[in-house]
Specification:
Elements lengths: L1 E12 L2 E13 L4 E5 L6 H8 L7 E6 L2 E2 L4 H7 E4 L11 H11 L4 H14 L15 H13 L5 E5 L7 H18 L2 E5 L3 H7 L2 E6 L2 E6 L1 H9 L1 E6 L3 H12 L6 E5 L2 E6 L2 H14 L6 E5 L3 H9 L18
Parallel strand pairs: 3-8, 3-9, 6-7, 7-8
Antiparallel strand pairs: 1-2, 1-4, 4-5, 9-10, 11-13, 11-14, 12-13
């Protein structure tokens, strides 16, 4: 569905050449749900804009839905839907009229456009809002209208750029309920960016992490967390002397990949906390040490990024290129 080789995009910023995307190789199969994660300025939106024909790559080759982005952008646009970070609807037109106009722009007859508009309203539970103007809608309602606008030509591939940013938790959950139902019903491929790590963790079948214009991790959320971050076991003991002994015990355990000690607290990094904790407590008991408290913590995708870069995914980096930079 998406095949990119050596995809690069350079910008001129303050007389400097910056590579916002650097030689990315990317392959997405039909039907996948892929989440692209990265801090501000990592190149997420630049990559999406190239894949959706909004920015030409400086070098490399990319085909989307079987169409070359450079030589057949019209073919790409006919096969995809794109929900950008900003609302695509006008402020002063009725929702249903906006949908009909959008459908007509894809060459549908007036009757067919009305049919598709009504279908999209029904699929996203927007019928009660059909005669309202987008300016009067809530943020969650407007994002559902944005998705509806992208479905009128029945795309095989849907790009979503930060679709739920700024929405309250209920509106986020409602939007994703509709999007995932649409995917199930129509077998669409979804490629999305999000700042909400829980969204990618729960819903994406595959997670890509981008940093400074390069893909630095690719896999399932569970696989990346297990292989690159691991879980954490946290145990407190009576005094620092016992903590030193507990640290030495942990360092001899084969499953432990890292140990940190802070006063009376010992933290272990392990692949599976639920199996490591009982073993650790038994070993401590055999050494004559009693744990005062013990807990486990599951790793997150932010831990994966931290282990790869030493930084948090939630951190913005002022030295990174701006995703919205212009050539």
């Amino acid at each position: 569905m998406i095949h990119a080789e050596g995809l690069t995009r350079r910008f001129r910023v303050r007389k400097r050449t910056i590579e916002a995307v650097q030689g990315i190789d990317l392959h997405v199969e039909a039907g996948e749900l892929v989440a692209l994660l990265g801090p501000n300025g990592a190149g997420k939106s630049t990559l999406l804009r190239m894949l959706t024909t909004l920015l030409p790559p400086t070098s490399g080759r990319v085909t989307v839905a079987g169409h070359d982005v450079l030589t057949d952008p019209t073919g790409v646009r006919s096969a995809i839907g794109y929900v950008g970070q900003k609302s695509s609807t006008g402020e002063n037109f009725l929702v249903r009229d906006e949908l009909i106009t959008q459908a007509r722009s894809y060459g549908l007859s007036r009757a067919h456009a009305r049919q598709r508009a009504d279908e999209a309203l029904r699929l996203l539970d927007l019928q009660p809002l059909a005669a309202r103007k987008p300016a009067t809608l809530s943020g969650g309602q407007r994002r559902r209208v944005d998705v509806a606008m992208c479905l009128l030509h029945r795309p095989r591939l849907l790009f979503l750029d930060e679709p739920s940013t700024g929405l309250d938790p209920q509106s986020r959950a409602n939007l994703w309920e509709h999007v995932l139902r649409l995917r199930e019903q129509h077998g669409m491929t979804l490629f999305l960016t999000t700042h909400y790590l829980d969204e990618a963790d729960r819903m994406a079948e595959r997670v890509l992490i981008i940093d400074r214009g390069r893909i630095i991790a690719d896999g399932t959320a569970q696989g990346l967390k297990r292989e690159l971050a691991g879980d954490q076991v946290v145990v407190t003991v009576v005094d620092p002397t016992e903590a030193a002994t507990a640290t030495a015990v942990a360092e001899r355990m084969p499953a432990v990949t890292a140990v940190e000690t802070d006063a009376t607290t010992v933290r272990l990094r392990v692949p599976r906390a639920e199996t490591a904790l009982p073993e650790y407590l038994r070993t401590l008991d055999a050494a004559g040490i009693t744990a005062v408290t013990a807990e486990t913590r599951r790793s997150t995708l932010d831990d994966v990024f931290l282990s790869l870069t030493g930084r948090s995914l939630r951190e913005g980096d002022a030295t990174d290129q701006d995703d919205g930079a212009h050539s």
